[in-house]
Fold each of these.
Amino acid sequence: MLKGRNAVITGSTSGIGLGIARALAREGASVMLNGFGDAAEIEKLRAGMASEFGVKVLHSPADMTRPAEIRAMIARAAKELGSVDILVNNAGIQFVSPVAEFPEDKWDQIIAVNMSSNFHTVKAALPLMRANGWGRIINISSAHGLVASPFKSAYVAAKHGVNGMTKTIALEVARENITCNAICPGYVRTPLVDKQVDDQARVHGIPPERVITEVILKPQPTQRFVEIDEVAGIAVFLCSPAGMSINGAALSMDGGWTAT
Ligand code: NAD
């Protein structure tokens, strides 16, 4: 379905981003991966995807806190893939702390990676989509783009910002065969969640083994994690012809969390 399309997925060496990149490649899109990790592991991943799906797969190590690197990543995708038709803004980090103790450098880093990078990627990629007369911008937001939890001030601020930016961009591109949407998952079991277990235990004053049931899955009425493949499935749907009229939406997939 996506043969001939080219996609850039930020933060796709792990977790949800990797799942989306694999799903787009399975549909025939060439992809540019992005994110950190061991160079040899990333090369194995890149080459493995290229041979498994028969598409071109590149990796950019661009740091999403650095606008010049973001611009260079999009320019490289345009040059080496031929265009950027699908942009998935997925890179994200988390830090859990009461607001009065929240480290300033962590605040700045979360706002840069989780929110401002979306502005820089869209600014660089939109002219390429306009030139082709087709584009899909998918921002991986969160249930925390719609509701808050304590101790996540930077993350919640960034994700609410992403949802606002999504709506603005959607209005600006509405007549150009381009859509811009946010996907708002509840908790998905990835390294990002695993890494916050100890911090959550500390701020909530409970042992780490109680964090999954008493903190993380507590707001999710289904009491189960969202699966990476479920998020990837929505991303593919948004790129399909049936996704054409979905524009400016914040698509909840949180097992009912934001219905409460
Ligand atoms: P993850 O930790 O598994 O992956 C994060 C990816 O981002 C990695 O590839 C990492 O290398 C990359 N990354 C981090 N900092 C970067 C930077 N400065 N520049 C470039 N790449 C960088 O996390 P995940 O859980 O897959 O999260 C992906 C997205 O999904 C995030 O935006 C997150 O907020 C969102 N999300 C996650 C959950 C969840 O429960 N896991 C729920 C809702 C939303």
Amino acid sequence: MNDLIDKQSSVPSYILAVETSCDETSVAVVKDGHVVLSNLISSQVETHKAFGGVVPEVASRKHVEVITLMLEQAIEQSGIRPRDLSAIAVTQGPGLVGALLVGIVAAKTLAMALGKPLIGTHHIAGHIYANRLVRELQYPAMALVVSGGHTELVHLESEGKFKLIGRTRDDAVGEAYDKVARALGCPYPGGPHVDRMASEAEDVVPLPRVWLEAGSYDFSLSGLKSAVLNALNQAKMRGEALEPSAVARGFQEAVVEVLVEKAVRAVREYGSRQLLLCGGVAANRGLRAALQERCAKEGLELVIPPMEYCTDNAAMIGAAAYLKWIRGEGTDFDAKADPGLSLEAWSVQSEA
Ligand code: KG4
Ligand code: ZN
């Protein structure tokens, strides 16, 4: 634990947060864990498009190019003087190690120069607490995390206490969307294209639902992705062409049905007071609509952050870091980037 940080629940806090775990560089200043004073995001997606996916070395270099200027601008836009910042938070993992390292070096340097505490933050805790930027959270809560790198169901017994109850055994949902999109001839990132095609489709290619063993909250996406590729290949061998929109719709319906069923079953079993949707795939219209309809029918409260807080951003890292700040739980300055950082181990240690 870092001795620069004390239990601080009564004074306003201004946390500067840095996120560089993948292909977005982002810096934010967040007041009291939920008021966003600035949140700058520089996306590298155009650079990586040419390669059909994120190239780790290129991502690190791009973070280095913009991080210093973004730190300056995020502080300036927030209207907070650097000396009035309470702490410096940074995504410590999971993510691409070289990309994480850029944010960590920048955050440590700033924290040391200003004499502020450092708070190494879990990226998925950030995605989950993006919901705190728009709503007061009620516990126990259930989070459905769906992004390019993660597909998880996380039970929050109380504030900052994470228990992973289900995860993908192979591809993440966003990753499967991107692979199916590529097979349908769409550019990277393909998720939004598949979503749009699915909503325009008149027909549907039926595809399997992957439930795994009875009672399991895990997911598996690679079999479904293979079923899509097989359907396309078999049609080609027969000299026919499948309507891409019908394939997109079949894929989306198969994904959404399993996500919604498992999330709602988890909410029931754990007595969750809210279902929190988060991650880049939370932008998916089919998923949002199906969850909204199902939750309304069952009388469950569903929280979905606005798009800017669903995709990678530093405001969500500031929101998660606040959990540690109010409990005086800082991070040592010798902390390293940790691509395998455990969410459960990152849980808060004490009551606020
Ligand atoms: O959370 P995110 O921005 O980055 C990660 O931390 O992974 O998620 C990006 C992923 C990409 O795979 C992208 O294709 C997917 O989210 N995505 C979508 C949609 N918008 C973004 N997938 C399905 N439907 C969408 N509308
Ligand atoms: Zn993410």
